[in-house]
Design a protein that fits this description.
This protein is an alpha/beta fold. The chain has 15 helices and 19 strands. A hairpin with a 5-residue loop joins strand 8 and strand 9. Bound molecules: flavin-adenine dinucleotide (FAD). Flavin-adenine dinucleotide binds next to helix 1, strand 2, strand 7, helix 5 and helix 10.
Length: 581
């Protein structure tokens, strides 16, 4: 068995190179340029993750008439009073500093008004137009500038390195992280004084999903194995209009932005009948959860398009007008053979974002000393719903804070911890399982397991849930975990370099593990709140008595879910900071 293991040391190890990871590296370096900082990333730095995919933009209270209090209240009310209020306040205040930093220090150019001020557009669920953007390619602008600055500072990069497990020393303190170099298949143990988890969540366990292909919830699965509590895991956000271009293209599931409905687009059932007016007075402009549930209901009733979704129709707004306003979207649809400007495009709700993640404090510390978290891997900022535009604000604000916190932490005489060698060997053995001797499995099995996962999560743990369905999907997940544990690579598919079948198996393990957390949290929440809708418990519950779920794994990977009261540290349900402002 080829188990080449290299060892490296670094003061700060950052897992992930999205908005959170890149900002953390820059801020840690700024705090102390002498620090040895390493970014390990599953893909290529600057080319992977969801921050790069951000289309719509970045929420920040800049304009006269807007305020931190207003942004905060929108975030809390959008999140159905479930957000941790200190985290939400850190988000809205930090966003102002971060957007200036992005423009004035890092070189981003955002769209501007004729008078030179930054243009801010409307986004759903907000009482003020506060979304800063660069056309509909905001994420590319942000990540390109961040990546350039990271390269310039000579921060060490481990690209195409996949994090596998956290390693502790024999006293239980964090010692570092085991990774594998995807290009060689060799193992790398990186010993670090501080580690940032910023692998970006990403609900890719659903049949239709938007996040980038490198995301498979690895970081959250690692956090579960480490015994960390994850909050709000039942809260998975679906975007109502993912492109439905057939099962044989990765374009299926990608987002057709909210602005299309905002501009007056109609949703039609398979027979061409407009249906949203029957569900909500706001019709197509209702919030993401309402529109997603309405489409799901139409699909359940069988009123679907040839590929099983509904139509988004823009033609009545004038083809030239649609092309002018949504050039990128029109071109993307044309690539898949659809005429968005003048015709109809098939769409389906698509899993977009995980509000849940590792419990953490505003300074990005976690329960485990030496381990920090930022971005979509963290939980508690958004509560039951994330406002469009608050995702990239979250990753960049908390990424920067994490960098500063880690630099200060390392400065206070921290030492390298030696890993428990038995645990290191066990972690390698875990990753090696697919190479073990014994009867091998056809690689096609992975495809079948993935299909089963996609369908079960979509049907029973998706947009509408109930006790029966959740019990059904829970049983499917146990079966999938058992089958994955038995999976062995075929003898002729054991070359470790770029072994995508091996990584597929690892991806599926992470997804099944995190799906279990989603399902068990959803079983415990017996009300309907934000993104979580239970047909057997449709009432929202009393916001003043809000609790959040907290999932934790024991050493045998069994999960327990507890509920904890939300602490209304700044404002109580029924009150508003606006009155006081
Ligand atoms: C299509 C799309 C459009 C969006 N539009 C908006 C928008 O308009 N506004 C908004 O606010 N938000 C938007 N979001 C959400 C936003 O992208 C995320 O909230 C945010 O960017 C997440 O940042 P992050 O740094 O946590 O994760 P990411 O940017 O996803 O970065 C995660 C990083 O972790 C790496 N990684 C993953 N697993 C491992 C592993 N095992 N080992 C090492 N590295 C690993 C990945 O390769 C990647 O580099 C959108 C998301 C999508 C998918």
């Amino acid at each position: 068995m080829d188990q080449t293991l290299q060892r490296q040391k670094t003061d700060i190890l950052i897992l992930g190179a999205g908005g959170a990871g890149l900002f953390a590296a820059l801020h840690a370096h700024q705090a102390n340029p002498a620090l040895d900082i390493t970014i390990a990333v599953k893909g290529l730095l600057g080319k992977c993750g969801c921050t790069r995919m951000v289309q719509g933009g970045y929420n920040v209270a800049l304009a006269p008439g807007d305020s931190l209090e207003r942004h905060f209240m929108d975030t809390i009310e959008g999140g159905k009073w479930l957000p941790d209020q200190e985290l939400a306040w850190t988000l809205v205040t930090g966003a102002v500093e971060r957007i200036h930093e992005l423009e004035n220090e890092l070189g981003c150019f955002f769209d501007r008004n004729p008078d030179g001020t930054i243009h801010q557009k409307a986004f759903a669920g907000q009482t003020f137009d506060r979304t800063v953007h660069k056309g509909d390619l905001t994420g590319i602008e942000i990540v390109n500038r961040l990546a350039e600055q990271v390269w310039r500072r000579g921060i060490r990069r481990l690209e195409e390195h996949r994090a596998l497990d956290f390693l502790l020393d024999r006293q239980g303190a964090l010692a570092g992280v085991l990774l594998t170099d995807v290009r060689t298949g060799h193992y790398v143990f990186v010993q670090a004084k501080a580690v940032l988890l910023a692998t970006g969540g990403g609900p890719t366990m659903y049949r239709f999903h938007t996040p980038s292909g490198d995301k498979s919830c690895d970081g959250l699965a690692m956090a579960l194995r480490l015994g960390l509590p994850l909050r709000d895991m039942e809260m998975v956000q679906f975007h109502p209009t993912g492109l439905l271009a057939g099962i044989d293209t990765r374009m299926t599931g990608t987002v057709l932005e909210e602005g299309l409905r905002g501009a007056g687009g109609h949703l039609l059932d398979g027979g061409g009948v407009r249906f949203m007016t029957a569900y909500d007075p706001e019709a197509e402009r209702a919030t993401r959860d309402v529109v997603s549930r309405a489409i799901f209901a139409e699909m359940g009733a069988g009123r679907t398009t040839p590929n099983g979704g509904v139509y988004l129709s823009m033609g009545h707004l004038g083809a030239a007008n649609v092309l002018r306003q949504f050039k990128g979207m029109v071109e993307r649809c044309a690539d898949c053979g659809f005429d968005l400007a003048a015709g109809r495009v098939e769409v389906v709700p698509t899993a977009h974002y995980m509000m849940g993640g590792v419990e953490f404090a505003p300074d990005c510390t976690t329960e485990r000393v030496g381990l920090f978290v930022a971005g979509e891997d963290s939980g508690g900022v958004h509560g039951a719903n994330r406002l469009g535009g608050n995702g990239v604000a979250n990753s960049t604000v908390f990424g920067g804070i994490a960098g500063e916190t880690m630099a200060a932490w390392v400065a206070s005489d921290r030492v390298f911890r030696e890993p428990d060698e038995a645990a290191l060997a066990a972690a390698i053995a875990r990753a090696e399982r697919v190479f073990a001797l014994g009867p091998t499995t056809s690689p096609n099995v992975l495809e079948e397991l993935r299909e089963t996962l996609y369908q079960a999560m979509w049907d029973d743990a998706g947009i509408v849930r109930n006790a029966q369905g959740l019990a059904r999907v829970a049983a499917v997940l146990e079966g999938l975990a058992a089958q994955l544990a038995e999976f062995r690579l075929p003898i002729d598919a054991r070359d470790r370099a770029f072994n995508l079948t091996w990584h597929d198996a690892l991806n599926l393990e992470s997804l099944v593990s995190v799906s279990r957390a989603i399902v068990q949290a959803a079983q415990v929440r017996e009300n309907s709140c934000g993104a979580h809708y239970r047909s057997d418990f449709p009432a929202p519950g009393d916001p003043a008595a809000s609790t959040f779920t907290s999932v934790r794994a024991s050493s045998d990977e069994a999960l327990t879910v507890t509920t904890k009261p939300v602490h209304f540290s700044r404002v109580r349900p029924g009150q508003s900071l606006l009155a006081a402002a």
